[in-house]
Structure formats: C-alpha cells, structure tokens
Amino acid sequence: MKHILLAAFTLFFSLIFQPALRAQQRITATGNTAKPWTYWWWMGSAVTEADITHQLEQFAKAGLGGVHIIPIYGVKGFENQFITFLSKRWQDVLAHTVREGKRLGVGVDLTTGTGWPFGGPNVSNEIAAKAWKNENGTLVTVLTKQQVKRPAPGGQGLVVDYFNKPAVEQYLRRFDSTLLRMPERPRAVYNDSYEVYGANWTANFLTEFKSRRGYDLNSQIALLTDTTQRSESILVHQDYHQTLAELLNDGFAKTWGGWAKKAGYLSRNQAHGSPGNLIDLYAQADIPETESFGSSRFPIPGLRVDANYEVDRFGTPNPLAMKFASSAAHLLGKPLVSSESTTWLANHFQVSLSQIKPQIDELFAAGINHIFYHGTPYSPPSETWPRVDSPGWLFYASTNYGPSSHFWPHLPLLNQYIERCQTRLQASKPDNDVLVYFPIHDLWATPAKSAGGIHQLEVHHVERWLLPQPFGRLCEQLSQRGYSYDYVSDELLNKLTISKQTIQSPGGATYQVILVPRTTYIPETTLRRLEQLARQGARIVFDQQLPEQASGFYNHESRSRSVVQIGQALRQLKNVTVSTDVFTTLPQLGVRVESWAAEGLSLLRKRNGDSTIYFITNLDNRFRQNWIQLSAKGRISCYDPLTGKQEWLPVRKGRNGQPETFLSVEPGQAFFVTVGPEIASSVQNSSQQPAIRSVGTSVPLKNPWQVDFLQGRPSLALTTTVANLSSWTTFSDSAGYFSGKARYRTTFDLPDGPKPAAYQLNLGDVREVADVRVNGQPVGTAWCLPFRVTIPANLLKPTGNQLEIDVTNLSANYMRLYDRQNPGWKKFYDINIVDIRYRPFNAASWDAVPSGLLGPVMLTPVSSL
Fold this sequence. Notes:
The protein contains 20 helices and 44 strands. The protein has 865 residues and is an alpha/beta fold. The chain has an eight-stranded parallel β-barrel with strand order 1-2-3-8-9-10-11-12, surrounded by five helices. Helix 2 (49-62) runs parallel beside helix 3, helix 4 runs parallel beside helix 7 and helix 16 (524-535) packs parallel to helix 17 (556-571). The radius of gyration is 29 Å and the shape is globular. This is Glycoside hydrolase. InterPro entries: Galactose-bd-like_sf, Ulvan_degrading_GH.
C-alpha cells in the first residue's frame, strides 16, 4: 500500500507542476522568471565587458534569473571610465550584457532612462513637467523645473510632462534611434514609481478638461482653489482629478506601453504614486510592479526590525497596496506581476536573510509572483573584497544583494526558496470569489495631501489615503476573515462579462460577487454598468447603502437624480443586495471563506487544472497547529518550499460533518497546500492515513560549547569555551568587530524514552545563518525563522553525539572598524552613502550588533499520533 500511495502522490504532483517546470527550463533569452531577479545599478555606467561577464556568471551560479539595469550616478575617481548613456559605447556594453545573459539563462530588463522619473537632455521646456498657477483669476502654465533624480552621465535634464502624449512621444524618440536598432535587446523596459513632484498640469489641460468634463475650468477657479470642502468644490476637484487621471493614462501609460509593444519589448510599470486610478494604470503594463519599502514589523517571535527606520516618515509595506498591481494582472490575465522588494529593510550591512523572507512571503500572499531584489550595485572585482579590503561600490539605499554582501554565500538558499514558490505561483491561476469596487471618487472628495494639491496614491503611506476609506477598512476585514478578492475600477467594470451568474474578466478570471463598499459619490455611468451586469445575472452586494450622488460638477443635480433612479431599479433585482452585514451576506451567496485565516494566517488561493492551490504563511504569532476546514474539498497535500519536501495531510470529519485537515504552520513559516481530486479508490479507501507529526518534550543542550573563530574580517585567532551561549561580541574587544564565521562545538546524549523517527534541533536565536553537522554529517542550514533543522534518528547515538554549528554573522561589526579607519570608501556622487534616516552614513558610531549562536538550543523528539 505504501508503494501505491507513493506512486499516486508522485503522479499527482507531476501532473500539476511538471509542465510548468519544463516551461521554466525552456526560458533562456528572457531569463528564468521563477528565479528572483535583481535591480542592477550601473554606477556611472563605468562597466566593462569582462566585468559584466564575471558578474553575470556569479549571478547565474547563485540562482538569480535576471537583472534590471538602471544607469545611475557614478563613483569619484572613475570619471574617465564613465560611459555616456545611449552612446555607441554604451549600446555595445548593453548588447554584450544581453548576449551573455542569453548564454547564461539570465534575463535583462532596462529602465527607459536613467535614475527616475523619465527625463533627460532631450526634454525641453515645452515638453517638461508643469503645474498650474492662478494669475488674476486665470489658470496659467508654469514649469516645475524638476530634474531627473540620481541621473547617470548623459541622463541629466528636466523631467518630462507625463500628462502630455506628444511630450512623451518626443521623449521616446531618443530611444528610437538607439534601443530600437540594437540586434540584442532586453526583455522589458521599465518605469519607476511616479515621483513627479508638484506636477499637476499640462499645456492643453484646459482644452482637454472642457472636452472631457463639459465646462470651462477657468469659470470655476474659486471652487478649484477652495480648501473648505464645500460641496461644489468637492465636485470640481473630482473633475480635476478625473481629468489628470485620464491624461496620465492616455498620455503616459498607454503611450509608453504602446511604444514598448511596437518595439518588441515587454513593459514593467510601477504605477503607484500616481494621481490616478492605480488599477487602470497598472493594467496598461505587461508586468505590473508594486513595491515593498521598509519593514512590515510582523509580530513573529525573534524577528528583528531596524529601530532607526522612521515609520512616520517612510511608512511600511501593506498588502492592500500590493493588491492593486496583482488585481490588474488577475483581471487581464497577465501571467507575471512583480515587486521592487526589500528596499531599506534595515540599515546598510545590517540586513539578514531571516528579515527578508517574511517580506517576500507577504508579497506572495498578496498575489506577487515575480520578485525583483532591490538590489545589486555593479562593482568591479578589483574594488570589492576579498580581492581588496573594501565593500566596493554601493548604492545609497539598502539592501545589497551583491557578491560583497555578508549573506552572498547563503543567498542561493533564499533564491531556491523563491524559485520553488514562484514556479507554483506562475503555473497557477487566480481563484478569488469577490471583486471589490474601488470608489476613487470618494477619495478625490477628501483633501489632497501631496504636493500640488493632488492625490498621489503611494504605497508607502497607505494610512494617508487607503486605510481611512471605507474601501480600505472593508478590504482589511475581508483579508482578516479569509475572503479571497481582487479590486476592480470603473473602467474595468466595462470589460466584465456574465455567464450563468459567474462574473468573467477579460483575462479569464472568474468571480462570484461584485462588492461595492459604502460609497457616497459614483459616476452614474458606473452605476448604470452595475445595473447592466446585474440584469445579466451578476450578484452585486452594496455595503450599508446605495450611492446617492453622482461624481463631478457638470449637471450634478440631474446626474444625481439618475443615480437615485438607477439605485431604485437595482433594489428591485433579486441578485442585488444592500447588506447591513456583508460577512453574513457573502457566504449566503456561495462566496467561499477560509475561516482559519482569522487565527492570523495570510493566504493566497489559486487554481491549477482541477486542483486548488493555497499559499499559506504565518506572519503573526497566534497560530501554531490546528485542525482547519478548507473551502476546497479533495485529496490534501502539503509542500514545503524551504525543503522541497511534500506529504499528504491527514483528514477527519469535523463536528459539522465537513472534512478537516491538520495544519502546522509556525510563525515565520510558509507552505503550499494543494487540494486535488481523489486519485483512485484503492487510495481513497485506504485505512493507512498520513501521520500527524507532533513534538515531544524539548530538552535543552547543557554541555559547554567550544567556539573557534574561522575566516573573517579582521582576522581573529580566538578559541574559547562557554557554559552559556551569548553574543560572541562579549568574548573580547576584538570579537566586537569580527565579521565572518565561527564554529560552535558540543556534545549531547539522547533523552530517555521511545526513539522517534527524527529529532528537531531548535537553535533559538541565530545571528545570522547556521550550518549544522551532527556526527560529521551535514543536516541542514538554518537561515530563517524559526531557526531549526531536522535530524534523522539514524544519524544519532544514544550518547556522545558530536554537534558542530558554523555561524556566519553580519558585516555590520567590521564596518564599525572599517568606517573609522577607511572613511574614503564613501566616494559616490549625488547622494553618496546615507543611513536609513537619510543622514550621512557613519558606522563608526554604531554599537556592536549581537552575533553568533545565542540559543537556547533545544532537542525535541518528533513523534506521530
């Protein structure tokens, strides 16, 4: 029977995932998208073919799938090696990069410009970013005078007018004579998050406004400039923002995306920060891209956050913001949705792999499936250790994923974890039941908080625009209660179709319900579209109330009467509900709910053929293990992307008669749970059920530890024995500056009692990565929370077991010394190197960072019920 179960299990997984794995193996010219990619800053574009090849080979060996080239400011002393952006020499090294990438299976993307936002020497005053000014009761156009931020040589100049199609077209002509003529081209072009400060106008805005909104904005200057939130002022501001949003979509997103498509490139766009509907802007890109900036401050035991990171100033990541990008991808069937990941997770030289993984898991749970590290500075081998005693060239913003990083030797472990996850995420389709309407006109009815008096929908500070709105509060509750959902815009409602009450998106995703949060203002065209969908069979739920006012100033009273009339018609339809409690209404309409999410688990539900795929991660500190009820029914298995192991999960009949499965997810862990059709009656009816693993009593390892310092900086010939584990920085003054590896040795006996199949070695607090050997045999590397490895019982003896743990720490402690002795390494133009508060970087003032094996180390037998 065991052989039957194993064969069925192997067949089950091969049918689901082998096609995706084979597809990934075929990817060469565009890189492997299942592997993580990285931003690759070309500092001064001072690159050479030999060093490009060397670094790409390092990236490929470490498990990276691609690079995203961003030409950036340069390094002092290397001016004679700077290469002007888009010059013949620059094109030659780019072509070499693409050729070598193809050889190595490493993809290449490229920013359509240098630094950010788009702009440069070909941007004249006529096509530069603009703002409006009130002069004697007339709106006039003025320049913002914003320059490209962090430009590379050859990229300096004014920022282009993103609201003006001819301006964007003229800007792109610079690339028509360069990038479009190259025989070797990158996979995709890229636009960074919208950071055009104070731009709120374009030269033809008044003409466009009158054409789109039906009246002359100059006739309502008093309402446009009013800040008292009068009702008429709100309506004019809605019209103003609606026009800006449309011009940004038409003038930039469609224009740039269309240019890329015509040129044969994919487009990657970070729409966030824009004064427009993010769903529509992301939807224009082939690969929508969100951003994870700072630390989410998960309550995972042992997770460290940088105390110097200023939350009030920079904000924290939030999955509700990430879902704008994934929703656009799901609705339109875009296979990839990416993220700029782990920007400023902690200060330079202080980021650990254990801090990175939960942030990646949060992105996966929000629907992201194409991770880009932020990032890797191009640094010649002659400028970095170990060849020379220097950290090399560094970008001003952490995290450094390059070969000079302290975690580079262990980065393949994180890369492998991400590849295993993304292989499954990219091979499956969204399986969300609810489409939540994003009422952006209600947002535009609130006072704007960005420069230029506009609403810029940034991912950093969702507390300023997203969380306070009924939409944000409702979506938070949906996530906490275990509902799977996407967002939908006014525009994308028009692209939905209905088949037997099922709502179908143009990309093939299906939904059961459209949910409208409590909304005050709505375009009457949107409400009429909802009525059309309802009459075709769509189930629509309004939270608390129906909207009663039309958005916009023109003919407001007449259009509001239409809104009321449409609402009255909607109330008469059986498949329309105005609900006082949507969390009672949704299950009554057949919407699936994963109630176990309320215990603090984050989830993403997807489909692959006849199987339902869950990505489940514990980013909280409430759940450990329990019997849970999945909404999907069938044969249940669990895949651990950390180890690559998979197993059946036990199932029992619950108290309500529905099947339950036993799930164990410690804080910091993540698993894929697959629910597939029953395979064969012989397996279905087998009395041999999967075992529920349980842990016995943990026993601390109490013998002394011998600690030997191995390779590192500065060289440290130190051996010591300690009775109790503590930071090695306390061993001696010189140990407080050591960055590298130390070996911990001890012995232990097995506890009395029945011998299980395996033991779990819980290392407690590890700073930062531990390679573990038992009786001379490697048993695993602990690099993320919880820090533990499994030891097969057959490797152990009743007494005298030898345990060796090699621990590698951060480079922060060595930088305390190096920055004091060699401050000249900070030799970069523009912003140079700053700390996490954007102050001049000074590691010499840091306290020693705890390092080594801090424990306590516990041995736990793993048994079965």
